[in-house]
Amino acid sequence: MKFRPTVAEIDLGAIRHNVEALGSFLAPGVERLAVVKANAYGHGTVEVARAALDAGATRLGVALVEEGIVLRDAGIDAPVVMLVEPPLEAAKAVVEHRITPSISTPAAAQAVSDAASIDGSTIAVHVCVDTGMHREGMDYERGVAFVGEVASLPGLEVEGVWSHFALGEQAEHPFTARQIELFAAFCDELSRAGIDVAVRHLTSSAGIVLYPASHFDLVRMGIMIYGLYPDEALRARCELRPALRLSSAVSLTRRLGAGEGISYGLTWAPERDTTIANIPIGYGDGFARMLSNTGDVLIGGKRRRIAGRVTMDTLMVDCGDDDVSVGDEVALIGSQGAETIDATEIASRIGTINYEVVCSIGPRVPRRYIR
Ligand SMILES: Cc1ncc(COP(=O)(O)O)c(C=O)c1O
After folding, report:
1. Which atom, in ligand 1's list, is nearest to the CA of 63?
2. 220 C-alpha to center of ligand 1: Å?
3. Residue 115's pLDDT is what?
4. Best mutation site among 64, 165, 220, 357 for ligand 1, i.e. most ligand atoms within 8 A of its Cβ?
5. Cβ-proximal residues to 51 (8 Å cutoff; 6+ apart), any chain
6. Which of 77, 148, 274, 310 could potentially form a cystine with 315 if both were Cys, beta carbons 3.0 to 4.6 Å apart?
7. What is the pLDDT of residues 89-136, one digit of tens each?
8. Interval 30-45: pLDDT, tens
9. Does 37 qualify as catalytic in the annotation?
């Protein structure tokens, strides 16, 4: 049952298009992993996973064991790589659901090995090495020895090794070049030590376009499969289609007199009489309160400024003397007529990144899929 008109439409054709577009940068044989953590950046884990696999992705990436279980419960059989080391107490669930964990510490390696041994199975793991981001990963100097140690534990097969860029969205950055060099040297050293690892991976979306030397055996595609750019300079290099459109409908209109304040705190008042339209979405849906008095929405193909504070369930916009009625369509993210508001515009208005804008769209907003 759905009474409120607020909805996020997800164009799965756009997801497929974007996965294919990224594939065009890769040499034959390089695998594509679709990152579907955080509810597929707000787009819906299972639907996006299926669309990405349809379009040529061969693996999925998650952050939580729970996210991997959602995929398995939906009947998705593709390899699922956890890009965060699992908590020790999750080792059994990781094994049971055939999730491929990232391993950065001896404790996690031991826990997963113990769980696999009890289960009598062998589980693929991807060892993470730190090449400079200093978030996850075994210390670089210990990396090769650590892979050897993990490989020697019962029930574990080191299928992959990986690392992550700190500045991957900036073209020709010396720090990124250095990370590529370090990762390549690490892989060479593994070979020399007689440790064969099938799946070496380093880059996320941006490096697919900007750093061909970072492709190795697999690339991890996140933001760009959603049709958003990690940096605007990439727009000219790769044609993507935004997959998410957030819309609603006007729920109430009123005339507001000049000088009359509106919403909590009465932070805004019109200079002359105006029509205000209420829209049933607010920060309780992940639509940022920081957009108060600074964000726009589209009604009737025109931009309308948010008037006063965004509240938990409702925001109000200034429509001037235009003829705006209850039920009129409102585009919050997406196009209407010739106008477009994208997640990147919203992000720049509130000092964040487009990733956070789409990830924040909460569970109260139903997702509708266009197949
Ligand atoms: C380890 C790892 N790989 C890949 C990605 C995907 O990055 P992007 O969305 O920039 O493609 C992320 C995103 O947070 C990540 O943490």
Report:
1. 16
2. 7
3. 98
4. 220
5. 12, 15, 16, 19
6. 310
7. 999 999 999 999 999 999 999 999 999 999 899 999 999 999 999 999
8. 999 999 999 999 999 9
9. yes
